[in-house]
Amino acid sequence: MHADAAPTPAAGPRTVGSEVGPLRQVIVHRPGLELLRLTPENKDELLFDDLLWVRRAQEEHDEFRELLAGAGVDVLLLTDLLRETLALPGARSFVLDHAFDERVHGPAATPALRAAVEAMTDNELTDTLIGGLTKRELLERVDEPRSVVLHAMGLDDLVLPALPNHLFTRDASCWVYDGVAVNAMRMPARVRESVTYEAIYRWHPSFVDDDFHRWSDGLDDGAATVEGGDVLVLGGGAVLVGMSERTTPQGVERLATRLFAAGSADRVVALAMPKSRLFMHLDTVMTMVDERSFIKYAGLGMLPSYTITPGSGPGDLAIADHAPEKMHDAIAYAMGVADLRILIAEQDVHAAAREQWDDGCNALAVAPGVVIAYDRTVTSNNYLRQAGIEVLTMPGAELGRGRGGPRCMSCPTIRDGI
């Protein structure tokens, strides 16, 4: 933690005890200005494959929130949490200190930038931190400082980049049993997302009085990156982590070490995933739908895996390697079950690849055997229903173009164990 961080409290009742136990509370982010900042020129840098029709995406997201509320879930909006957090002077200073840095904006422009946003209302500042700030918008508030950085920018260039990936609230922070990891993000376009969550968990009234561990500080973890889309809380002290293009082995080891030290988990199974955008996170190819069932993309195949358990001394790790054909066995053993039920919809290779791209495997369980999925993944949804899983569908024609499904768009903060 940084020197200005609050002391880490002891763990308490706020927990996420599984992937499929009844979901009690979740953070989501309704699309807004940040997606209107996407253009054909910047979408790749901002990690989007396409431009979304924002109004329709908002309507789809509203239906997502209605499904969650109908399932008895307390839905927290990220923008509300951030706005209420910024009302607190210490939190506001913390966020601005991390948003404006002379190593990014230059020593000449940084003071003027900081002064401009310092004067904003909490609503304006919330919109700016997530939606970004153009040079034109800046100059409506202050005279242009003598800055090479600013002079070299066009009027509509973003002085403060937008954060369109805040839509996927799963990644920058994830709750694992009785604590939260604010994650170091692998891609530069997402690094500032961690600042949002760090401020909320340190200062917001919904969290500040709760007792929970902090598994990582995403502002100071370097190459030890972990993203929440790769982390599945299996229940009973077991955790499954995908080592994807976004989550590194050193990040997994650091997470395991902290979980073990607190006694919150005693088994971590790590999967060596292909390092490609197609397999961006584990939850894009494999998610849990009931107490021992997973929906899985056929193209994932079987992967080398590693079981990590506490070693003989403090901070030591014991690591067992497993051949690819033992992947499911390693997960089942960690969960304490005889075997897993792996659900793979029967379809040809082209249809399977399209359905995976459309997030057919990215189901969000709201209770054991009850999941939310996009309506566009018809084959996967029908297959789950045939397997006895209740599937609640939401529209995903626009949201799905962002390459993230219901699980990606949700950050559980309270969930029962199995």
From TrEMBL:
GO biological process: L-arginine deiminase pathway
Catalytic activity: L-arginine + H2O = L-citrulline + NH4(+)
Pfam families (alphabetical): ADI (PF02274)
Main location: cytoplasm
Cell location: Cytoplasm
EC number: 3.5.3.6
Record bears the keyword Cytoplasm: yes
Active site: 408 (amidino-cysteine intermediate)
UniProt keyword Hydrolase present: yes
Keyword vocabulary terms for this entry: Arginine metabolism, Cytoplasm, Hydrolase
Gene Ontology CC terms, in alphabetical order: cytoplasm
InterPro entries: Arg_deiminase
Family that this chain belongs to: Belongs to the arginine deiminase family.
HAMAP family reported for this sequence: Arg_deiminase
Protein name: Arginine deiminase
